[in-house]
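Input for the complex:
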Amino acid sequence: MSRYNFKETETRWQAVWEDKATFAVTEDSSKPKYYVLEMFPYPSGNIHMGHVRNYTLGDVVARYKRARGFNVLHPMGWDAFGLPAENAAIANNTAPATWTRDNIATMRRQLKGMGMSYDWSRELATCEPKYYKHEQKMFLDFLAADLVYRKESWVNWDPVENTVLANEQVIDGKGWRSGVDVEKRKLNQWFLKITAFADDLLAELGNLNRWPDRVRLMQENWIGRSEGAFIRFDLVGRDDRLDVFTTRHDTIFGASFMAVAANHPLSLEMAEKNPGLKDFIAECARLGTSEAAIETAEKMGFDTGLRVRHPFIEGKELPVYAANFVLMEYGTGAIFGCPAHDQRDLDFARKYGLEVVPVVAPKDADAASFDIGTVAFTDDGLHINSDFLDGTTVADGKADIARRLQAAGTGEPTVNYRLRDWGVSRQRYWGCPIPVIHCGDCGIVPVPAADLPVALPEDISFDGPGNPLENHPTWKTVDCPQCAKPAQRETDTFDTFFESSWYFARFTDAQNEDQGFSRAAANYWLPVDQYIGGIEHAVLHLLYSRFFTRALKQCGYLDIKEPFAGLMTQGMICHETYRDESGKWLTPEQAEGRAGVTIGRSEKMSKSKMNVVDPEIIIAAYGADTARLFMLSDSPPDRDLDWTDSGVDGAWRYMNRLWRMITEPKMALPEKGAGQPARLSQSAENANRAIHKTVAAVSGDLDKFHFNKAVARIRELTNLLDDLDPSAGGAPWALRQGLEAVVRLIGPMLPHIAEELWRELGHDVMLSDTPWPDVDETLLVDDTVTVAVQVNGKLRGTLDLPKGVDAGVAEKAALELPRVIEAMDGKSPRKVVIVADRIINVVI
RNA sequence: GCCCCUGUGGCGGAACUGGUAGACGCGCGGGAUUCAAAAUCCCGUUCCUUUGCGGGAGUGGGAGUUCGAUUCUCCCCGGGGGCACCA
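Predicted:
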């Protein structure tokens, strides 16, 4: 019995594809284009199972679309800047550049061993000056277009990584990588005006109909648009006012207090001469943004002593509290409290004994007796206790108040966003230098375009604390481009999300030295038709890329604003976990055959739980095709996938079975291209129909990325072919048809063995260059159909009936079934429901 | 707290817009082949009941709509995710 030699076969076909540049593409107006892209990896050292899954999914799409006649762009590159390189530099005394390039070499070799259909001529690494010089130019263009600004601001400082984190990178008050508590510091930062596009970023989500709903929802929540109003309250005894943002301006008559953030300018000012307030502010700062602290903290406030005048009630004054539940970062950092209609305000008012006046009541409630207990009333209703608003709805009340505020010049309707501008400065070495120069006389001066790139020095030292760019003897010293006096380079580098915000465009024209990409190439290939990657990038990377594309459009780089037309997010790879008697984690190898091992539930593969399986070992033992098949079988792409040894065995078994069925067929196969015999036996005819049905079904499954279903259908056809009776007329012909179909259908998933078997079947043209099989539509429709027969909704039998048979005939046949007669127990049918070609339900 | 997703055999998962629940695979049981094993092949495999034919129950739980519900509606329970004093 022959055994499939995957090692020899896989390396041989990989070499063929590489020699023939099978997957290299150029713009070609004769074919529809299709751009499939997987999120490029950070070159951490080795590929892991998550990569294998991600890139297998993308490769199936790429190969399938190619077979369907598309001009497919399928590139790969490296997200090569980032902290781990610096950490490795410190730990191993290697230069970040060397470490990164070595890792890229390793991972490139591993990816090539997976048989991915990449156009390697477009490979890029973001840490190379020939890549980042273009984004330095983009930054300068953004600066000129007023999409960039610099401001001193409170930032999230990660004390372990010694760097600033974006709000998005702070998770539960901790650094997203280091996991330690984030501190607040004030630094000068570069910001990109993502908020300038907030409305458009939100509105266009509605058109991204090939994105998962949940990702769109997450971005929608992140942008956090809310319609409301600014209201200016006059401060009593002072010349200034307190600005407030609210979405419930209709409840203004129920206002009983004001609350400002602890770090609001007014709180800070009043704290100067109020030690109690000062202590309160310090306490709020101690609480910080740490999730656990805030969650358990009850609503607290401190009277600043200030009072404001109510804008609509003559002579009414409201106290101004500093409160721990008001955020300086949102709105104006100040609110008016209306306890009756906001739960937080109610909790606060009850605690400090403030007035609770209901100003909205349910339509059928009695205004005089309507009362608020411990639950705020937040539904719609009619206004009460509200002077001129009485009897109006919430919506009408809002409109009326807004009109009056505007007329009086004390406020106006406004839209507020949760989204904040993107801080891109990082106090890090291994990133793209921000191309500006600080001059004592001229201030901030952009580096002239002709002087780009501002290249990172590679002769650096990590011996001292802080940023090696600061410590480099000469790098930051430069003459001012404007006045020629000695000046200094900016030593901050970009957030690495900067590089990944445009790499998809670079792939369209990766070798272009003069520009990041030509407009023509970008306009031909973009948007990415199918983007594939992890759900963890649902907000950060995807939102930044959407913004960046808009900014590039505004600066004349390209003509689209949405970079990714289709998005698929893949689930995690999980594996059982193992512990020994003492509770220590064990690797799967250590756990095998060992006594006293506790098997834990399947969890995401992670080094800390030691439940990782190295793809390289799997590929060495079973080959890339087996790993790919396993990744595609069973679990739909967006769900988590359980890695099991038996599942891998199953995939391996299928490969060998297919191999045997073709290299040692049960019956002599007719020559390639042999015509259909004049007469087919029933079983050959059925097989032929099954082949065409399978091709149609698998095509549909792949169009919808239902890879697990496609695999199941191909296996089903394989089973049927294996059961073909050699003595039946036309069986050998049907078998050849079927085997060829199976090989072609499985080709995008198992490219190596499929190429090999395709050649074994006598074909000279590579499978990779062979179009997708055609379907004979006439064979998809059967002349008879199996109809279920129920009595009172319970299945009592089935009938094989001619398709489209007359209802009367069907009913008669159904009522004659012995088991139907039995179930009817002598009663006559009250009603017979007949759904043509589907079901007959006899109701008695 | 708010929002979203999800719940089907021992396991991963199928089931088109309401129409034969459990495709396909894994695992398990039995058998063939073998000196023996590996590999391979065949049969069985939701549960209860029945010697077999059958019968009954069944898609987290409870109600509802319908001739008919895994699918639609409402309530409850479990699992997962996002956001969070967002005004």
